[in-house]
Amino acid sequence: MSAIILDGKELSKISEESIKERVSKLSEKGIKPTLATVLVGNDPASETYVKMKRNTCARVGMESIAVELSETTSTEELLKTIHNLNDDKNVHGILLQHPVPSQIDERLCFDAIDISKDVDGVTCLGFGNMSMGIDAYGSCTPAGIIRLIEHYQIDVQGLNAVVVGRSPILGKPMSMMLLNLNATVTICHSRTQNIENIIKNADLIVGAVGIPRFIKTDWIKKGAVVIDAGYHPEQCGDIDLNNIEEIASAYTPVPGGVGPMTINTLILQTLQSAEKDNI
């Protein structure tokens, strides 16, 4: 039996059609779902990511507000910008693009985002609520992965899941989301001892360590579900996917797996925020 390809590109297209319909219904009521993107400095990769998010908004009929601040912006100036967006009733979601210049306290600024507008899932309060099973917008990449798993009807309950990576917006929330779905979760990282043996026992693997091909094909046991959340200039992810279709029961391709679901989840959560305003 061949492995299932967890096609994030295809699922995001299907989702966009549904989002378009819901945006149209809100627009008829005079509500325009709006995402504010805050870009500090001139990092080329960040500029590209923000442009992709704004283009997606346009495709589904949503508004986007581009807030661009200089490389010399202070923490206080960025906080003032965020507070103004919090107070703007026409803004339903706020995205502060990571990373910000080094002089800025990024965590302080993330946590200044109103919880009701934290559609990127970056606040400590949002993480805490999500971990406790309280309604919250999840960090977009792990939340997108969960949507992908559920779309392909993969039951993670009871599975031995290994998440390789511990970042605040990927590895840690991914682990909590899987735990909330009753998986048994082990968190590894680049300094974990005997990591190869841990991964060899995994029923489900999430590569989120940020190192190209860090997880080797021969570490993966037959029939495992393989989720690669990495993407690198070498056109590869965090997992060596060579011959993966002969090993895994299901896997995400790179590119076209996890990436499209990240932006789609951001847009979906902005829409959900606008819909809550209409209740």
Description:
With 279 residues, the chain is α/β, with parallel strands linked by helices. It folds into 2 domains: 30-122, Rossmann fold, CATH 3.40.50; 140-260, Rossmann fold. The protein has helices at 8-28, 44-60, 75-87, 106-111, 124-131, 140-151, 171-180, 195-200, 259-277, and strands at residues 4-5, 34-40, 63-69, 93-96, 160-164, 184-188, 204-207, 225-228, 250-251. The strands form 2 sheets. A 6-stranded parallel sheet has the order 1-9-8-7-5-6. α2 (44-60) links the parallel β2 (34-40) and β3. α2 (44-60) crosses α9 and α6 packs parallel to α7 (171-180). The radius of gyration is 19 Å and the shape is globular. The mean pLDDT is 96.
Main sheet summary: 6 strands, parallel
Q: Give the CA-CA distance, first to last residue.
A: 47 Å
Number of helices: 9
> How many domain modules?
2
Enumerate the spans where pLDDT stays under 50 for 5 or more consecutive residues: none
Radius of gyration: 19 Å
Helical/strand content category: alpha/beta
Provide a quick synopsis of the model:
This protein is of the alpha/beta class and 279 residues long.
Secondary structure layout:
Layout: E1 4-5, H1 8-28, E2 34-40, H2 44-60, E3 63-69, H3 75-87, E4 93-96, H4 106-111, H5 124-131, H6 140-151, E5 160-164, H7 171-180, E6 184-188, H8 195-200, E7 204-207, E8 225-228, E9 250-251, H9 259-277
Parallel strand pairs: 1-9, 2-3, 2-4, 5-6, 5-7, 7-8, 8-9
Helix pairs in contact: 1-9, 2-9, 6-7, 6-9
